[in-house]
Amino acid sequence: MDFKRIIIKLGTSTLTAGSQFLSRPHMIELVRQISLVHKLGCEVIIVSSGAIAAGRETLGFPEFSKHIPVRQMLSAVGQTTLMDVYTKLFHLYDKKVAQILLTRSDFNDRNRYLNARNTIEALLNQGVIPIINENDTVATEEICVGDNDNLSAMVSNLVDADLLILLTNQKGLYTKDPNTNKDAKLVKIIKEHDIPHHIWHAAGKSKDGLGTGGMFTKLQAADLARRSGTSVIIAAGNEKDIILEIINGKEIGTLLTSVSSSVESKKRYLLTGIRSSGYIVIDNGAENAIYKGGSILPVGIINASGTFVRGDVVRINNPDDKEIAIGIINYSLEQINKITGLHSENIENVLGYSYGDEVIHHNNMIIL
């Protein structure tokens, strides 16, 4: 298997090895494998749980209610412990890590979506391994993702990941609940566009139809990720060299193949989004460049008009004022008017900052 960008989701049960404490011996084994994968040239992003468990450990396991403010407090205490452990363990393999905390609203708001994506891209370009967690310290029931399985799927869409690895305490998906059915069989691969009903049933639901937080949420996450162009493998996190075995192409766990490309997913996102009233006009050179797979740079812009802010979907017109494409713009109308016609290296000199060389990246553009 050949993957360029991989997301590895590590749940609390994986990090604690089933205990109440963060299992340093097990974590260093996971870090060793991830470091080897990273050394092979793969870009790796970790979506990690464990902050609340680390908070309980740090405070000596006091008895608390299950109220959201208590969860937020435990997360605030535990995040520093969790990242301290990750930092020290990865340092043993000369790897640098960074922490990113996200909530659902970061994915729903185009501007924050772009900010998160650009931050992760910048870290990956520097060879840093991002470690992402839900921001439990500020999340409420209205804005929280709810579990890091679904968070990992949303991150997969955010960064166009090739593979999402969901590590759990089971070997994968089964035809029936293996805890209560001796004849349950491991499902090795799911290629169907829609995951079969009996697989959903085997994963289990609570009485109100919501996920129990176990295998059902992993199946939800896998379904979301594969529709964004990311293949998914669900496997046991306690198996020896599990991550290395997966990367080396060994048949292990349950593979759910992607059902659309990341490009198709991005196109649907752009086409279904609300377009602003704004547009930019590009010159003939820029028009030819985008037909060949290039991005739009400020030097190729003639003018801009309408109303739009960074993260909006805008129209792209050629010199004859014909609409030829749409795309997510990296700069506001006010900013575009200041950098129109300039070379990209001058953006920071004019604005005092830069969101990147591209006004609209080709990956965020649809040619009509």
Can you give a write-up of this model?
This protein is an alpha/beta fold and 368 residues long. It folds into 2 domains: 5-265, Acetylglutamate kinase-like (Carbamate kinase); 275-367, PUA domain (Archaeosine Trna-guanine Transglycosylase, Chain: A, domain 4, Roll). It contains 14 helices and 13 strands. It has helices at residues 12-16, 24-39, 51-58, 68-91, 104-108, 110-125, 148-159, 197-203, 215-226, 242-247, 262-272, 284-291, 333-339, 347-351; strands at 5-10, 43-48, 97-102, 129-134, 163-168, 189-190, 231-236, 254-256, 275-282, 301-305, 313-317, 323-328, 365-367. An 8-stranded mixed β-sheet has the order 3-4-2-1-5-7-8-6, with helices on both faces. Strands 10-9-11-12-13 form a 5-stranded mixed β-sheet, with helices on both faces. Strand 11 and strand 12 (323-328) form a beta hairpin. Helix 2 (24-39) packs across helix 4 (68-91). It starts with a strand and ends with a strand.
CATH topology of the largest domain: Carbamate kinase
Number of domains: 2
Briefly, what CATH class of the largest domain?
Alpha Beta
Shape category: globular
The strand order across the widest sheet is 3-4-2-1-5-7-8-6
Which structural class best describes the helix and strand composition?
alpha/beta
How many DSSP E strands?
Answer: 13
For the sheet with most strands, the description reads: 8 strands, mixed
Radius of gyration: 22 Å
Mean pLDDT: 87
Q: Low-confidence stretches at least 5 residues in length (pLDDT < 50)?
A: 206-213
Instruction: Please bin the fraction of helical residues.
Output: 25-40%
What distance separates the N and C termini?
34 Å
Share in β-strands: 15-25%
**What's the helix count?**
14
The fourth-level CATH homologous superfamily of the largest domain is Acetylglutamate kinase-like
